From TrEMBL:
Species: Longispora fulva
Pfam families: SMI1_KNR4
Record-linked InterPro entries: Knr4/Smi1-like_dom (IPR018958), Knr4/Smi1-like_sf (IPR037883)
Superkingdom of origin: Bacteria
Knr4/Smi1-like domain segment(s): 38-211
Protein's recorded name: Knr4/Smi1-like domain-containing protein
Protein backbone atom coordinates (compact mmCIF):
# COMPACT_ATOMS: atom_id res chain seq x y z
CA UNK A 1 0.00 0.00 0.00
CA UNK A 2 1.27 3.47 -0.91
CA UNK A 3 1.51 5.75 2.14
CA UNK A 4 2.08 9.46 1.70
CA UNK A 5 3.29 11.82 4.43
CA UNK A 6 0.44 14.28 4.96
CA UNK A 7 1.73 15.57 8.30
CA UNK A 8 2.54 19.10 7.10
CA UNK A 9 -0.49 19.56 4.86
CA UNK A 10 -2.97 21.02 7.33
CA UNK A 11 -0.42 23.55 8.62
CA UNK A 12 0.43 24.60 5.06
CA UNK A 13 -3.24 25.18 4.33
CA UNK A 14 -3.63 27.18 7.55
CA UNK A 15 -0.70 29.42 6.56
CA UNK A 16 -2.24 30.05 3.15
CA UNK A 17 -5.64 30.79 4.69
CA UNK A 18 -4.08 33.39 7.00
CA UNK A 19 -2.82 35.46 4.05
CA UNK A 20 -4.91 38.41 2.89
CA UNK A 21 -4.67 37.27 -0.74
CA UNK A 22 -5.85 33.70 -0.07
CA UNK A 23 -9.29 34.51 -1.45
CA UNK A 24 -7.81 35.02 -4.92
CA UNK A 25 -7.18 31.31 -5.36
CA UNK A 26 -9.80 29.75 -7.60
CA UNK A 27 -12.46 27.97 -5.58
CA UNK A 28 -11.40 29.37 -2.21
CA UNK A 29 -14.76 31.04 -1.68
CA UNK A 30 -16.32 27.58 -1.79
CA UNK A 31 -14.02 25.51 0.45
CA UNK A 32 -12.84 28.51 2.54
CA UNK A 33 -9.56 26.69 3.26
CA UNK A 34 -11.29 24.41 5.76
CA UNK A 35 -10.16 20.80 6.05
CA UNK A 36 -12.62 18.47 7.71
CA UNK A 37 -11.48 16.04 10.39
CA UNK A 38 -9.86 12.76 9.32
CA UNK A 39 -11.66 9.46 9.38
CA UNK A 40 -10.95 7.05 12.18
CA UNK A 41 -9.53 3.67 11.22
CA UNK A 42 -12.89 2.17 12.22
CA UNK A 43 -14.77 4.57 9.95
CA UNK A 44 -12.46 3.81 7.05
CA UNK A 45 -12.82 0.06 7.58
CA UNK A 46 -16.60 0.43 7.57
CA UNK A 47 -16.51 2.60 4.43
CA UNK A 48 -14.29 0.14 2.53
CA UNK A 49 -16.41 -2.81 3.63
CA UNK A 50 -19.44 -1.02 2.20
CA UNK A 51 -17.64 -0.32 -1.09
CA UNK A 52 -16.19 -3.82 -1.35
CA UNK A 53 -12.78 -2.46 -2.32
CA UNK A 54 -9.77 -0.92 -0.59
CA UNK A 55 -9.18 2.68 -1.60
CA UNK A 56 -5.86 3.58 -3.31
CA UNK A 57 -3.12 4.08 -0.72
CA UNK A 58 -2.43 7.80 -1.20
CA UNK A 59 -6.08 8.76 -0.88
CA UNK A 60 -6.61 6.28 1.92
CA UNK A 61 -3.78 7.84 3.93
CA UNK A 62 -5.18 11.34 3.23
CA UNK A 63 -8.50 10.30 4.77
CA UNK A 64 -6.74 8.87 7.82
CA UNK A 65 -4.04 11.47 8.45
CA UNK A 66 -5.20 14.72 6.86
CA UNK A 67 -8.96 15.01 6.44
CA UNK A 68 -12.10 13.54 4.95
CA UNK A 69 -12.43 16.46 2.51
CA UNK A 70 -12.63 20.24 2.24
CA UNK A 71 -9.89 22.52 0.94
CA UNK A 72 -8.49 21.18 -2.30
CA UNK A 73 -8.30 21.57 -6.07
CA UNK A 74 -10.93 23.72 -7.80
CA UNK A 75 -13.99 24.08 -5.56
CA UNK A 76 -12.61 21.66 -2.99
CA UNK A 77 -12.34 17.98 -2.21
CA UNK A 78 -15.67 16.20 -1.81
CA UNK A 79 -15.92 15.01 1.81
CA UNK A 80 -16.77 11.43 2.74
CA UNK A 81 -19.74 11.34 5.10
CA UNK A 82 -21.89 8.73 6.77
CA UNK A 83 -25.51 9.29 5.74
CA UNK A 84 -27.46 7.16 8.16
CA UNK A 85 -25.88 3.72 7.84
CA UNK A 86 -24.29 4.38 4.46
CA UNK A 87 -21.11 6.22 3.52
CA UNK A 88 -21.27 8.68 0.63
CA UNK A 89 -19.33 11.59 -0.83
CA UNK A 90 -20.92 15.03 -0.87
CA UNK A 91 -20.46 17.64 -3.61
CA UNK A 92 -21.59 18.88 -7.00
CA UNK A 93 -21.28 15.73 -9.07
CA UNK A 94 -20.51 13.34 -6.23
CA UNK A 95 -23.69 11.48 -7.18
CA UNK A 96 -22.01 10.49 -10.47
CA UNK A 97 -20.03 7.94 -8.47
CA UNK A 98 -21.71 4.55 -8.55
CA UNK A 99 -20.77 3.38 -5.07
CA UNK A 100 -21.89 -0.16 -5.90
CA UNK A 101 -19.53 -0.32 -8.90
CA UNK A 102 -16.27 1.04 -7.47
CA UNK A 103 -14.77 -2.44 -7.40
CA UNK A 104 -15.56 -2.86 -11.11
CA UNK A 105 -12.44 -2.01 -13.14
CA UNK A 106 -12.27 1.24 -15.07
CA UNK A 107 -10.67 -0.29 -18.13
CA UNK A 108 -9.07 2.77 -19.71
CA UNK A 109 -5.51 4.07 -19.60
CA UNK A 110 -5.82 6.58 -22.46
CA UNK A 111 -8.26 9.41 -23.14
CA UNK A 112 -11.54 8.41 -24.77
CA UNK A 113 -14.76 10.08 -25.78
CA UNK A 114 -17.90 7.93 -25.74
CA UNK A 115 -19.49 10.30 -28.27
CA UNK A 116 -16.81 9.67 -30.90
CA UNK A 117 -18.37 7.98 -33.91
CA UNK A 118 -21.80 9.48 -33.47
CA UNK A 119 -23.20 11.23 -36.55
CA UNK A 120 -22.96 15.00 -36.86
CA UNK A 121 -25.87 17.08 -35.51
CA UNK A 122 -28.64 17.75 -38.03
CA UNK A 123 -28.15 20.58 -40.52
CA UNK A 124 -30.98 23.09 -40.38
CA UNK A 125 -30.73 23.71 -44.12
CA UNK A 126 -31.70 20.10 -44.80
CA UNK A 127 -35.17 20.60 -43.30
CA UNK A 128 -38.26 22.23 -44.81
CA UNK A 129 -39.42 23.80 -41.57
CA UNK A 130 -38.12 24.93 -38.24
CA UNK A 131 -40.42 22.46 -36.48
CA UNK A 132 -38.98 19.55 -38.45
CA UNK A 133 -35.44 20.68 -37.68
CA UNK A 134 -36.19 21.09 -33.98
CA UNK A 135 -37.72 17.62 -33.83
CA UNK A 136 -34.66 16.10 -35.54
CA UNK A 137 -32.33 18.00 -33.24
CA UNK A 138 -34.18 16.75 -30.15
CA UNK A 139 -33.87 13.17 -31.36
CA UNK A 140 -30.18 13.64 -32.08
CA UNK A 141 -29.31 15.06 -28.66
CA UNK A 142 -31.35 12.40 -26.89
CA UNK A 143 -29.28 9.76 -28.69
CA UNK A 144 -26.05 11.66 -28.05
CA UNK A 145 -26.73 11.97 -24.32
CA UNK A 146 -27.70 8.31 -23.98
CA UNK A 147 -24.29 7.37 -25.35
CA UNK A 148 -22.11 10.14 -23.86
CA UNK A 149 -23.57 9.95 -20.37
CA UNK A 150 -24.06 6.19 -20.12
CA UNK A 151 -23.07 5.22 -16.55
CA UNK A 152 -20.93 2.27 -17.65
CA UNK A 153 -18.23 4.70 -18.84
CA UNK A 154 -17.44 5.79 -15.28
CA UNK A 155 -17.53 2.55 -13.30
CA UNK A 156 -14.54 2.37 -10.97
CA UNK A 157 -14.30 6.18 -10.73
CA UNK A 158 -14.71 8.09 -7.47
CA UNK A 159 -15.66 11.70 -8.24
CA UNK A 160 -13.78 14.05 -5.90
CA UNK A 161 -13.89 17.61 -7.26
CA UNK A 162 -15.67 19.93 -9.65
CA UNK A 163 -14.42 22.88 -11.65
CA UNK A 164 -17.79 24.43 -12.48
CA UNK A 165 -19.76 24.08 -15.74
CA UNK A 166 -20.35 20.39 -14.88
CA UNK A 167 -16.65 19.53 -15.37
CA UNK A 168 -15.36 17.10 -12.75
CA UNK A 169 -12.26 15.20 -11.67
CA UNK A 170 -12.22 11.68 -10.32
CA UNK A 171 -9.91 9.09 -8.77
CA UNK A 172 -9.62 5.67 -10.39
CA UNK A 173 -10.40 3.11 -7.69
CA UNK A 174 -10.23 -0.08 -9.75
CA UNK A 175 -8.55 -1.07 -12.99
CA UNK A 176 -5.17 -0.57 -14.69
CA UNK A 177 -5.09 3.17 -13.92
CA UNK A 178 -5.92 2.67 -10.22
CA UNK A 179 -4.70 5.55 -8.04
CA UNK A 180 -4.58 8.15 -10.83
CA UNK A 181 -6.78 11.17 -11.41
CA UNK A 182 -8.97 11.63 -14.48
CA UNK A 183 -11.00 14.51 -15.86
CA UNK A 184 -14.61 13.98 -16.89
CA UNK A 185 -15.18 16.59 -19.61
CA UNK A 186 -18.38 14.99 -20.88
CA UNK A 187 -20.36 18.18 -20.29
CA UNK A 188 -18.00 19.96 -22.70
CA UNK A 189 -18.29 17.07 -25.19
CA UNK A 190 -14.69 16.14 -24.40
CA UNK A 191 -15.09 12.69 -22.87
CA UNK A 192 -12.62 11.36 -20.29
CA UNK A 193 -8.86 11.94 -20.04
CA UNK A 194 -6.08 11.21 -17.56
CA UNK A 195 -4.68 14.22 -15.73
CA UNK A 196 -0.98 14.58 -16.45
CA UNK A 197 1.94 16.19 -14.68
CA UNK A 198 4.26 18.62 -16.44
CA UNK A 199 6.44 15.73 -17.62
CA UNK A 200 3.45 13.86 -19.04
CA UNK A 201 3.18 11.25 -16.33
CA UNK A 202 -0.28 10.51 -14.90
CA UNK A 203 -1.12 12.38 -11.71
CA UNK A 204 -1.65 10.19 -8.69
CA UNK A 205 -3.93 11.51 -5.95
CA UNK A 206 -1.06 12.82 -3.81
CA UNK A 207 0.66 14.60 -6.69
CA UNK A 208 -2.69 16.06 -7.82
CA UNK A 209 -3.36 17.44 -4.37
CA UNK A 210 0.20 18.60 -3.65
CA UNK A 211 0.51 20.29 -7.03
CA UNK A 212 -2.64 22.28 -6.24
CA UNK A 213 -1.19 23.22 -2.85
CA UNK A 214 2.13 24.31 -4.39
CA UNK A 215 0.35 26.47 -6.96
CA UNK A 216 -1.93 27.99 -4.32
CA UNK A 217 1.05 28.89 -2.12
CA UNK A 218 2.83 30.49 -5.06
CA UNK A 219 -0.25 32.46 -6.10
CA UNK A 220 -0.88 33.74 -2.58
CA UNK A 221 2.77 34.68 -2.12
CA UNK A 222 2.74 36.62 -5.39
CA UNK A 223 -0.36 38.51 -4.30
CA UNK A 224 0.82 39.38 -0.82
Amino acid sequence: MVIFDWSATRSRIARIAAQASSGRVFGASSHEWKVESPLSSEDLAELEAQLGVELPGEYRSFLLYCGRGGAGPAYGLFPARRMGRRWEWEGDGADLTDLDQLSTPFEHVEAFNPADGLPEPPDEEAYDSEDAFNAAEDVYWEQHDRVAYAPEHSVGLLYLSHLGCALREALVISGPARGTMWADDTADDGGFRPLLDEDGTPLTFARWYQRWLDLAEAQVAAGS
